[in-house]
Write a structure and sequence with these properties.
The chain is α/β, with parallel strands linked by helices. The protein has helices spanning about 10-30, 50-65, 80-90, 105-110, 145-155, 170-185, 195-205, 220-225, 270-285, 285-295, 305-320, 320-325, and strands at about 40-45, 70-75, 95-100, 125-140, 160-165, 190, 210-215, 225-230, 255-265, 300. Strands 1, 2, 3, 4, 5, 6, 7, 8, 9 and 10 form a ten-stranded mixed beta sheet that branches. α2 crosses α9.
């Protein structure tokens, strides 16, 4: 760029030049999202599970609000670590979002042996949107008719009753560890890269039971292929009538998955504001809420500030659980 004589003084000219060099950043925030450039939502789980579906349900609404294509990109593996690593390596320009699942996303960086390249400070939550308690299920023809049957089988056969989870140090894994502690038993824990994969293994006769988010069981429950033995909610869940809570069956376990949208912490405030408004509109969308109800997902919206505080509080509560996984 050729700079001509300013003629209004060195300091004023320098200030104008400063504005010239600041302008691209300001324009990027004001013009967000960049027209013709897609936004990606990284889902750190395999296709087909409740986490994947939660992202795909809201993508069309976000696309309508933001005026650019919104694509869901599955990056499963290592209990969200692969997907979250890709998110933290992306440009903080609001064109790469992540599907956040708590407490799952925090477990990788809380475990030093995982050597995650990120921590809590690397992310900002745009908003949390839903609550999905965990459940434990068996095949319909299983000899285990209730949670106590499964627990007592594990007591008689330590580490022989195979129970699947969606991944090492996943929310499912934490629930299973809490159940083991509450019942004083040991299961044979088998990890997969998603809840749908563990259910497939259950239906194939390779597992005795599966722990995953309750909504993931929905289609198999409707088909009569599985039966839920318990749910980790505080009270009976409206989507699963007749399924007793773990607490009601004598095993104090309350846990579940909260889902939302997350970005890198360096994302400009203006971009966060635009994204936050779009996510709020998506959460309030009647069609989206209807679809969430159809998928047994409880709508629970937390804005950026509330969601950030929730993450911090949940992290403090979850840290002690890591010792159970060792």
């Amino acid at each position: 760029m050729k700079i001509r004589h300013c003629g209004i003084g060195f300091l004023v000219c320098g200030a104008l030049m400063g504005l010239v060099f600041m302008a691209p950043g300001l324009v990027e925030a004001a013009d967000y999202p960049i027209k013709g450039r897609a936004i990606s939502i990284i889902v750190p789980f395999a296709p087909g599970g409740a986490n994947d579906v939660a992202a795909r349900v809201q993508a069309p609404v976000l696309e309508k609000e933001l005026g650019v294509p919104v694509m869901v990109v599955n990056k499963p593996g290592a209990s969200t670590q692969i997907g979250m690593t890709q998110l933290v390596q992306a440009k903080p320009d609001g064109h790469t979002l992540g599907l956040l699942t708590l407490p799952g996303a925090m477990l990788a960086y809380l475990d030093p042996s995982r050597k995650a390249i990120y921590s809590r400070k690397d992310f900002k939550v745009v908003a949390m949107q839903s609550w999905d308690p965990n459940g434990i299920a068996v095949k319909t023809d299983s000899p285990h008719k209730n949670l106590k049957d499964l627990v007592e089988a594990a007591r008689v056969n330590p580490e022989k009753i195979k129970v699947g989870t969606s991944g090492l140090l996943s929310t499912d894994h934490m629930v299973l560890l809490l159940l083991q502690k509450a019942a004083d038993v040991k299961f044979g824990i088998v990890h997969f890269d998603g809840g749908s994969q563990s259910i497939t293994a259950l239906l194939g006769g390779h597992l005795d039971a599966v722990v995953t988010t309750s909504s993931t069981f929905l289609s198999q429950l409707k088909s009569g292929n599985v039966k839920m033995l318990g749910i980790t909610d505080k009270e009976e869940n409206k989507f699963f009538p007749g399924v007793k809570t773990f607490d009601a069956q004598g095993y104090r376990v309350q846990y579940g998955a909260s889902r939302g949208i997350v970005v890198r912490s360096e994302t400009p405030k203006e971009v966060l504001g635009i994204l936050g408004a779009a996510v709020k509109t998506a959460t309030d969308d009647l069609d989206l809420r209807k679809r969430m109800n159809e998928m047994a997902l409880t709508v629970r919206y937390l804005d950026e500030k509330q969601a950030g505080a929730f993450w911090d509080e949940l992290e403090a509560q979850t840290k002690p659980l890591l010792s159970l996984a060792k």
